[in-house]
Amino acid sequence: MTIDRGFLNVLILSWGFMLVFTAFQTMGNIEKTVLQSINEDDPNFTGEAYTSLAIIYAVFATCNWLAPSYISMTGPRIAILTGACCYVLFIGSFLWPQNVLLYAASCILGLGAALIWTGHGQYLTENSDSDTMSRNAGIFWAIFQCSMFVGNLFVYFMFTDSKINATTRRLVFGVLTGLAILGTCLLATLRRISNSLVLGEAEGVSSADKELRIPEPARKKPLLAAWHALTDAIDLFITKKILLLSSMFVYTGLVLTFYSGVYSSSIGFTKAMGDSRKSLIGLSGIFIGIGEVVGGALFGIFGSKVSRVCGVWSVVLTGFCAHLFAFVSIFLNLPNDSPFADTDGIGYITPSPVLAMAGSLALGFGDACFNTQVYSLLGILFPQRSAPAFALFKFCQSVAAAVSFAYSNVVYLHIQLLILTITIVIGTTTFCFVEYSTRRERESNQSESDVSSE
């Protein structure tokens, strides 16, 4: 039995991302805690985790406008590999903690993130068609989010004391750097796709013709291609559908900040969680990963069936309910000042590690619901403009993440939860509206095509 080349490309992409982001997502999860421990050992080091992460996402947002231009000259494979190398550099910089190096590496990572994620969106779309896009997006998300397991399980067993010593930190940083290098090597094996483009149903092609392909246009001069890619991204940004979807893009950025940098640290800072509270940081990351993988696998395997029977909106509403449960449980379970430093405070109930892990699971599952459907909808709506479409998604997401990390230094937990609640309501409403109107348009086009063929 032979494996479809496009599907094999998706698998290599997924496992490569999994290894690279095992390193990065674990680092993001523990950065606040480990940088605080470094400062305790060396008062001259004053690097701030939330500031580092804010820089990453601010540069990420800016460079998203330039990423399609870079990809137009190099192709998505080179962009993905370049971005992965930037992640290796960032993770490796923690082996030599210096204030200037931390923030410089954060800037470089922001550039790499724009390249790797925009390149990923185009490469995933080019290896899919309108029927396999939802499946491939779900499979990618499930494999990719396995990254939450390996690194955080390692951290769970390493961070057994209330204080993290230098030897433990160096071992953790070294292992994570090695994983990032391994993932980069795997991404270097991505195979070139055939010189063709898929016409999806969103471009007016019926489902019977979903395999119809057209030749690529003749390659333009690099600078001209880069300029056209930039103007195409700007033109796409002001379309009605992208403007409506942008509220969902913003929400995914805000909640990404919360679960990847704030929530797990808040658990570790809550003294009422017990002496092993630092190990709960890793355990929280594992449960977030479980939710991400279950959601990605579920909606990857059954995504097309769910879409036909209930519509994409049912998946998004499932994620909506999961995240509301998480927000309520966190509001009750954790003290208001827990995002900043060790605290003796408690929430409205006695802090419970079990409830904290349930919140982590719900955050991961809901995030998978939202992201798989965003990837799928963008791939179907813009199969021939996938690079600028995914760049705009990541632009909105990263701007929101940068702003969120910036205010996480000063905004208390309850206000952060209120912001998330307001934006999830707006984002879910606009996403469901765009998905419903798109589905109606496709059904109308299909009916007209069937009538004209009779």
From TrEMBL:
It holds the Pfam family UNC-93. It is a multi-pass membrane protein. The chain crosses the membrane at residues 7-27, 47-66, 78-95, 101-118, 139-159, 171-190, 242-260, 280-302, 309-334, 354-382, 389-407, 413-434. Keywords: Glycoprotein, Membrane, Transmembrane, Transmembrane helix. GO terms for cellular component: membrane. It comes from the Eukaryota. InterPro entries: Ion_channel_UNC-93, MFS_trans_sf, UNC-93-like_regulator. It is found in: Membrane. Belongs to the unc-93 family. PANTHER family: ET TRANSLATION PRODUCT-RELATED, UNC93-LIKE PROTEIN MFSD11. This is UNC93-like protein MFSD11.
